[in-house]
Specification:
The structure is a single chain. With 357 residues, the protein is α/β, with parallel strands linked by helices. It has 2 domains: 167 residues, Glycogen Phosphorylase B (Rossmann fold, 3-Layer(aba) Sandwich); 171 residues, Rossmann fold (3-Layer(aba) Sandwich), CATH 3.40.50. The radius of gyration is 21 Å and the shape is globular. 45% of the residues lie in helices and 14% in strands. Helix 3 runs parallel beside helix 5, helix 8 packs across helix 11 and helix 9 packs across helix 14.
Length: 357
């Protein structure tokens, strides 16, 4: 058991999702090889053979690097395929997690599609967190239903400190008891729709506007754009940088609702983070999201055909009874997806894949 190797790429050390999913495999004595650079991955793949597994996560580092032109991206794709094919010839198994329909802000789209189709064709198992992933990616590539394995995104129940009271969290931001606080948490990037959320708030009468809580890494360019959107008339508390683990609770405890006005999303770790703190959420009404979360009483849906208008109507409503039930429902959902049980399901998948003769 102890000599099985699991190569993970790209392995972001500060990514809580990866760290949680690897808990059970590490406990079962999988030797995890982590890499962020193609050159290191090639070395790791060269060490793998029968009984070992290569787990591919996000594809962007292969052909979407900002400093690569098309020719350089093609070379990287060919190198990746050669290393993977050689490992498979020695008996290594491949698992691919489909995190996104396509990488955000993809530069070399045709190469990306070639890579995705290659992985879909050769993977021994395709892990999806959203049950409707195959339908969502169908316009771009096909997934074999026989090889698709649905393991949902784990919650972050018990992962982050959770000792701060709601009153203390709100007081730390200068919020009054009657303030309605709407949270957008995570990297502030164009596809995340911060502009839609701001426009929705701006459509409300001044005395009905919520306080915006905006927290997450933001590029200098995007921060300037957000400054311009907010102007001088909207009230917002902002942190345009990484939020330390100990401080995550402050943002979620202070919020009445978390809004995810995404233009394009397949999976969202921040949504599960909201559930872990018992915070109701608002999502775009898209078929693949409804398929995964349609029965969740803590989630409400805005119309993507009129995103700002639909969100404005939702934020203007005072529904105390729904909110109380939604808090309970979010907490229950988070407990259903406790990290270690979900990680065990992932470890079971690795065991099955590695045992295939």
């Amino acid at each position: 058991m102890s000599d099985r190797q699991l190569a993970v790429f790209p392995a972001y050390r500060d990514n809580p999702y990866l760290n949680l999913m690897l808990l059970a495999p590490r406990a079962r004595r999988w030797h995890v090889l982590e890499s962020l650079r193609l050159e290191v991955l090639e070395q790791h793949l060269g060490r793998l053979g029968a009984g070992d597994v290569f787990h591919m996560h996000w594809t962007a580092p292969i052909v979407q690097r900002a400093d690569d032109d098309l020719d350089a991206a093609r070379v990287r794709l060919d190198r990746f395929r050669s290393a993977v094919d050689a490992a498979r010839d020695r008996g290594t198994r491949l698992v691919w997690t489909v995190h996104n329909i396509l990488p955000h802000d993809a530069r070399h789209l045709e190469l990306e599609l070639e890579l995705d189709r290659y992985l879909a064709e050769i993977a021994d198992a395709v892990h999806v967190m959203n049950a409707a992933t195959a339908a969502a990616v169908a316009p771009h590539y096909s997934l074999d239903p026989a090889r698709v394995v649905h393991i949902p995104h784990p919650s972050y129940q018990g992962v982050y400190p959770s000792s701060m009271t709601r009153d203390d969290a709100r007081a730390s931001f200068g919020l009054d008891p009657d303030d309605h606080a709407v949270l957008a948490f995570g990297q502030m990037r164009p596809y995340k729709g911060v502009d839609v959320l701001v426009e929705a708030v701006r459509r409300l009468p001044a005395d009905q506007r919520p306080v915006l809580l905006l927290a997450g890494r933001t590029s200098d360019e995007d921060r300037v754009a957000i400054d311009r959107l907010l102007g001088a008339d909207l009230r917002a508390v902002r942190q345009h940088d990484h939020v330390d683990d100990v401080d995550v609770q402050r943002w979620f405890r202070a919020a009445d609702v978390a809004v995810f006005p995404y233009r394009r999303v397949l999976n969202s770790g921040s949504l599960h983070l909201a559930a872990s703190f018992g915070v109701p959420a608002v999502l775009p009404d898209e078929a693949h999201l409804r398929a995964e979360f349609g029965d969740e009483g803590w989630i409400r849906w805005f119309d993507t055909g009129d995103a700002a208008g639909s969100l404005a109507q939702m934020l203007a409503r005072e529904d105390v009874e729904w909110h109380a039930g939604a808090v309970r429902s979010a907490t229950a959902a988070s407990r259903r997806l406790m990290p270690f049980p979900v990680s065990r399901r992932y470890a079971d998948l690795l065991d099955r894949v590695s045992a295939v003769g």
